[in-house]
Design goal:
It is a single chain. The chain has 22 helices and 18 strands. It is an alpha/beta fold. Helix 6 crosses helix 22, helix 7 crosses helix 8 and helix 18 packs across helix 21. Adenosine-5'-diphosphate-glucose binds next to helix 6, strand 13, strand 14 and helix 17. Belongs to the glycosyltransferase 1 family. Bacterial/plant glycogen synthase subfamily. InterPro entries: GS/SS, Starch_synth_cat_dom.
Length: 732
């Protein structure tokens, strides 16, 4: 169907969507809070039987991480921890003169730090292009395939740099550069992959005899004997690959939520297994660690030629490549800001650039090349990458040994837009069918996530429970049919914890203002001190015997903070303290402030984005409350358990997978769960939790100890990711 043919109908649909939300008929008003907007989603259905969670080893901590080490997140301009209260509240109040979009690029009316899941489709009503000049797809023919029109995004690629020697599929190690005769290029690549020396690059100290070893390639695994304690080569063995993780955010440089955490940590864990790993992320600000590589390229995005520069840092065995372009600059505190068309244009540019990074960016002097390479794209922002990989290259016999994996962190945000905007994506016309989607809520539209899911070689969701939910009408947000039909290539892998960043033993945010580092051995004294410091910092009465409840999260329908508001009359009647930290929807921000005003002796509602405060609440609170309506994985409950803070969660998605309910009879479990995202269910769970806290000290301590003793490290998750990468590699 041509875009012209569909445009009028789509415009009608999208105009009708101005106040619609993807939950549509599924959404139900919860409770009767005066703060409730009615935009929240009641998300309750039969959850799948819990997969038995294999017992893991005792907590693996990287105790060697040093105070203020290079991984310690620097204070970002968005952090408001040290600002006076008035300014703290102002942090989240920035308003863009342009139509604002939600965290994932959907119109919400909120700041870009927010993820107003409830409203993302509303943006679709805005079909007027504000800043993008309409243009047909570009057709820069670089490598014409017989009888085929080839579209390449980059404006200045010399053939010798775009076509490194292809590799046969069976050739696994990233260190090996032999090409094996499938359509060899007429011109040799500028940088030979064979010159790549993994050990030298990541700084392993080799003994002389190892240096003499002239073996290369797959059989060379034995020469990695000095990789940590493992003398048989990289943990990944012969599966060693080149991995490029592509995402819109990456902690500690730019983070609005869990995506940033994952992208900051998973690559390091993959590198520890021996893979050569790069992270590609936009350069929203000046990041002191990264240096200009002096490479300039030109790309077309939505009809405009744009210059792109590359900045590079090598940290913890990972190449971090920051894409610098005018579209990304000065967006540090507003990375998903601007109109829907603007963010789409940024992501089109970003994906076009990222897919060619393995050719243009010689990290450590050597490009990654496109053999034995896998991209890991994340969420809808980078879902175009698998599409470009296929449309620009794989369809034309290029990049035949490159694979793509797409990770679903949150399917509530999909990159929906009118069908008549499809030409901005610079794709062959027949690709439109992969984007086109009709659902009762969104009408007929172009859906970037849908196309990415179809084009990716493999797909990962961030928990198995969430994967199950995605296949349901309630949980798939219109993509359930696509998920179901691609079930064969989807795996659920629970996120891990970066133990350099989220570890009470070494947490840099617990080193001042009366807080302290602690471990399982020093839990009692350590938590008591952190709790007192938190109470002091927030102006609450310093009391050890009062249970301190915490909430941290984006203020939107997903996180269910309004359910806490609904439960407030009961909470206020208890001898408890409640600290909530979040930013997002204006009505929910007001709710936090209102609750603090109403209950000044009990409640603190901190409106703002503060990484240090998130760490301090996690350490100082006794209980972390997560009444999320849906939660693909959830990281805060993992962090809480690692800090001896007991989670009380709605049993949904990853929360259900990771928080086994407490069983007082067998003294097992990790926290309290409730089966519907409703205030009365939350109250019931909290009642049991507080009863245990007050009256069963031994049970409480063993709950804390079990939480802290789990191996929640990324190393375990990275191993599971590796299985997926290998499946992708051998999949044709
Ligand atoms: N106001 C604030 N100040 C400081 N820090 C704040 C903050 N609000 C949130 N954070 C931090 O942001 C992170 C949020 O993690 P979540 O797992 O809740 O992610 P989120 O829902 O954004 O992401 C999605 O992706 C992740 C990763 O896959 C999934 O776990 C999750 O279920 C899915 O919704 C945590 O590190 C938290 O401390």
């Amino acid at each position: 169907m041509s875009s012209a043919a569909v445009s009028s109908s789509s415009s009608t649909f999208f105009l009708a969507l101005a106040s619609a939300s993807p939950g549509g008929r599924r959404r139900a008003r919860v409770g009767s809070s005066p703060f409730h907007t009615g935009a929240s989603l009641s998300f309750a259905f039969w959850a799948p039987p819990s997969p038995p969670r294999a017992p893991r080893d005792a907590a693996l901590v990287r105790a060697e991480a040093e105070a203020g080490g290079k991984d310690a997140p620097p204070e970002r301009s968005g952090d408001a921890a040290r600002l006076p209260r008035a300014r703290r509240n102002a942090v989240s109040k920035r308003r863009d003169p342009l139509q604002p979009v939600g965290r994932y690029g959907s119109a919400t009316g909120n700041t870009a730090r927010t993820g107003a899941a409830s409203c993302q489709n509303a943006a679709l009503a805005d079909v007027e292009i504000k800043s993008i000049v309409a243009a047909p797809p570009t057709s820069i023919v670089k490598f014409p395939a017989p009888g085929y029109r080839m579209i390449l995004p980059s404006g200045d690629i010399a053939p010798e740099t775009v076509l490194p020697a292809p590799k046969p599929l069976h050739e696994s190690p990233a260190v090996d550069g032999d090409s094996n005769g499938i359509a060899p290029p007429t011109v040799e690549p500028l940088v030979q992959e064979a010159t790549w020396d993994f050990k030298k690059y990541i700084g392993f100290d080799e003994p002389d005899e190892a240096k003499d070893d002239s073996r290369v390639g797959a059989d060379d695994a034995g020469s990695f004997e000095h990789y940590g304690d493992n003398d048989s080569g990289p943990l990944a063995g012969e599966n060693v690959m080149n991995v490029i993780v592509v995402a819109a955010e990456c902690s500690p440089w730019c983070k609005t939520g869990g995506l940033g955490d994952v992208v900051g940590a998973l690559p390091k864990a993959l590198a520890r297994r021996g893979h050569r790993v790069m992270v590609v992320v936009p350069r929203y600000g000046d990041y002191v660690e990264a240096f200009d590589m002096g490479i300039r390229k030109y790309y077309k995005a939505a009809g405009q030629d744009l210059e792109v520069n590359y900045f590079h840092a090598f940290i913890d065995g990972v190449d971090f490549v920051f894409i610098d372009a005018p579209l990304f600059r000065h967006r540090q505190d507003d990375i998903y800001g601007g109109s829907r068309q603007e963010i789409m244009k940024r992501m089109i540019l970003f994906c076009k650039v990222a897919v060619e990074v393995p050719w243009h960016v010689p990290c450590g002097g050597v490009c990654y090349g496109d053999g034995n390479l896998v991209f890991i794209a994340n969420d809808w922002h980078t879902a175009l990458l698998p599409v470009y990989l296929k449309a620009y290259y794989r369809d034309h016999g290029l990049m035949q040994y490159t694979r793509s994996v797409l990770v679903i962190h949150n399917i509530a945000h999909q990159g929906r837009g009118p069908v008549d905007e499809f030409p901005y994506m610079d794709l062959p016309e027949h690709y439109l069918q992969h984007f086109e989607l009709y659902d009762p809520v969104g009408g007929e539209h172009a859906n970037i996530f849908a196309a990415g899911l179809k084009m990716a070689d493999r797909v990962v969701t961030v928990s198995r429970g969430y994967l199950w939910e995605l296949k349901t009408v309630e949980g798939g947000w219109g993509l359930h049919d696509i998920i179901r039909s691609n079930d064969w290539k989807i795996n659920g892998i629970v996120n891990g914890i970066d133990h350099q960043e989220w570890n009470p033993k070494v947490d840099v945010h617990l080193r001042s203002d009366g807080y302290t580092n602690y471990s399982l051995e020093t839990l009692d004294a350590g938590k008591r001190q952190c709790k007192a410091a938190l109470q002091r910092e927030l102006g609450l009465e310093v009391r050890d015997d009062v249970p301190l409840l915490g909430f941290i999260g984006r203020l939107d329908g997903q996180k269910g903070v309004d359910i806490i508001g609904d439960a407030m009359p009961w909470i206020a009647g208890q001898d408890v303290q409640l600290v909530m930290l979040g930013t997002g929807r204006a009505d929910l921000e007001r709710m936090l402030q209102h609750l603090e005003r109403e209950h000044p002796n009990k409640v603190r509602g901190w409106v703002g984005f503060s990484v240090p405060m998130a760490h301090r609440i996690t350490a100082g609170a006794d209980v972390l409350v997560m009444p999320s309506r849906f939660e693909p994985c959830g990281l805060n409950q993992l962090y809480a358990m690692a800090y001896g803070t007991v989670p009380v969660v709605h049993a949904v998605g990853g929360l259900r997978d990771t928080v086994a309910p407490f069983d007082p009879f067998s003294d097992a479990g990790l926290g309290w769960t409730f089966d519907r995202a409703e205030a009365n269910k939350l109250i019931e769970a909290l009642r049991h939790c507080l009863d245990t806290y007050r009256n069963y000290e031994e049970s409480w301590k063993s709950l804390q100890a079990r939480g802290m003793s789990q191996d929640l490290s990324w190393d375990h998750a990275a191993e599971l990711y590796e299985d997926v990468l290998v499946k992708a590699k051998y999949q044709w």
